[in-house]
Amino acid sequence: xxxxxxxxxxxxxxxxxxxxxxxxxxxxxxxxxxxxxxxxxxxxxxxxxxxxxxxxxxxxxxxxxxxxxxxxxxxxxxxxxxxxxxxxxxxxxxxxxxxxxxxxxxxxxxxxxxxxxxxxxxxxxxxxxxxxxxxxxxxxxxxxxxxxxxxxxxxxxxxxxxxxxxxxxxxxxxxxxxxxxxxxxxxxxxxxxxxxxxxxxxxxxxxxxxxxxxxxxxxxxxxxxxxxxxxxxxxxxxxxxxxxxxxxxxxxxxxxxxxxxxxxxxxxxxxxxxxxxxxxxxxxxxxxxx
Length: 290
Prior knowledge:
The structure is a single chain. This protein is an alpha/beta fold. The chain has a single domain (6-289), classed as NADP-dependent oxidoreductase domain (TIM Barrel, Alpha-Beta Barrel), CATH 3.20.20.100. It is built from nine helices and 14 strands. The strands form four sheets. Strands 3-6-7-10-11-12-13-14 form an eight-stranded mixed barrel. It has a two-stranded antiparallel sheet with strand order 1-2. Helix 1 (44-56) packs across helix 2 and helix 1 packs parallel to helix 8 (251-263).
């Protein structure tokens, strides 16, 4: 039974579920030097099962990034969505350069030629001819470079490579730069009861916000699933900045918890592995779900 609801992604005309599945965890391990920035070892079949369960419940919005697992998340998502491309909305991101073999992040870029190459690489990994929402993944990029990136994204829209674009940033000033673009429709930012961003929402009220509603960075997260304690070596919070160390639930919770989130039978903290696509005008409506 489908138990979700849908809304338009900004001014794009794209209809997507208000709840989406974030795909950082299914990418598995990857590193920035000695620092782990991925979830850790994952079972791809469990990940695919979680995506299929989300589809069964009406979720059609899947958010990943090329750097998650150094390309692995995009490849797994492509397998999970095979034969269903016209039923789903795929969002991915660019900005982090990486080596797929070593799974190491090697740099960061907003260069126009890099953006075009990154887009083509994501299209190949995702096995699709277009990306619904292509998001800049360098949150504190200098404004002048961001303007050039925005203009490059406009050319990708015209070429049919992407349908719309956005920026994953918590900065209202930077978001406003992208908002000047005709086909910019979304700003992805972190927002929850412990970490709000009212300035961003108030300045960009006509945009969709792909909101990271993670609740779990510590004891609250572990308490929500105390029967399944975190395995040694998986918890990367101590090594990473807060905005990078986003915890996802284990595969069992992702699959069974998708139902409990939507029908109200499970703990409200289960939304730690999900994304919400919302407008400030719909904030009260969304709150009823959680």
